Amino acid sequence: MFKATALVYSSHNRCEHIHRDWIVERALKSHHNKTIFYIPMSMGRWDQQEYSWGTFEWYFRRFRQWGLQDSTFFWSENLRHEDVEIFFEKVVNSEVVILGGGNSILGMQRYKYLGEHFFGDRYLFARLLHERQNKKLLTVGFSAGADQLCEYISAGAGFDLEEPHGVGLVRNTVCTLHHEWGREGELRHLASQVPHCLVFGLPNDSGIAADQGYLPSGNIWQVSEFIIDNSWDLPKDGLSYKNKTRLKNRTLL
After folding, report:
1. Gap between the Cα atoms of 106 and 134, Å rounded
2. Residues with Cβ within 8 Å of residue 216, at least 6 apart in sequence
3. pLDDT, tens only, 18-51
4. 239 SS3 class
5. 198 - beta bridge partners?
6. What is the model's pTM?
């Protein structure tokens, strides 16, 4: 039975199908570890990280009566070693970890800094996320976080960045987020830069769930499932988010 270990998605708000069925219920199904750890480090200032957490915290609050334990951790210039130990402990042990939105490159720089500065391992964060995948725990990327969990950061897929790689929990895949019609040229450009990857533009309230592992031969397998969430129905959001009846992706090989 397919059990996702990575979920990358776009949304404009906390659409019900993605956030409840794929994220919250994954934590609540655990008999002993109903934990979700939300990381807003891709946002710049402290108040921006607080805002990012607030856009999720109100939704998680609904499920605390069933045992959900949600928490967060903010980036600061004044983090102590013991603070970062707590951060990585939550990364290792939480049933669901969510990388939040913001600036993909900034977030990756911070994750690498924490590993290198405090533990002498620049790629500690990425390695721990892969260990989570091996243990069949779910790691989620929302917006910038989705960018980070793919093979490349979309802004650096043309290798304009010194370190263009993402974490690679969704292998050989690159995503652009909050996709809208008219951005097909951006996808074509990405596909031309990384021809060995699948390139997707994810519109709001859509995502890709994936799992991967190794065959006895040493080859890597990956299974992906596409998600369309039509559950968000606030009238004030109107057609700007609801005018989609099918996944508006362009897959360029």
Report:
1. 26
2. none
3. 999 999 999 999 999 999 999 999 999 999 999 9
4. helix
5. 173
6. 0.89
